[in-house]
Amino acid sequence: MKSYRKELYFQVPTRRAFINITPEVNQALRESGIREGLCLVNAMNITASVFINDDESGLHHDYERWLEELAPHAPIEQYHHNRTGEDNADAHLKRQIMGREVVVAITNGQLDFGTWEQIFYGEFDGRRRKRVLIKIIGE
Ligand code: ZN
Q1: For the chain, which ranges sit under pLDDT 70?
Q2: Partner of 125 for a Cys bridge, out of 21, 47, 97, 114, CB 3.0 to 4.6 A?
Q3: What's the predicted TM-score (pTM) here?
């Protein structure tokens, strides 16, 4: 069995963003040379997510509104976590909802996606450098 590991880096200029990272994951898959196996992609930070859904701007706008309704950023005093001096409690909660990682099957050297599936990095507390791990195993 072969394995391949790669890290991606993000420094988003805004507090929140959704970025389609499917091209970067495809690039890592090509570099791995693996034809059959599994590909894990996970955020290496507890205020960012990796998730799979549609690359449709209206949906991303809907996510933003829905997440702000569930866990509004302000007022920051509403969260116990922010008593530590941080202001990112909402980002931890948003990350929990949107998930830490995805696993995609690799078949015949391709990411074996369902219809319209794409892989996204979800940033909820940006303006600093963060990592995403890609781990591919197979043969
Ligand atoms: Zn925090």
Answers
A1: none
A2: 47
A3: 0.97
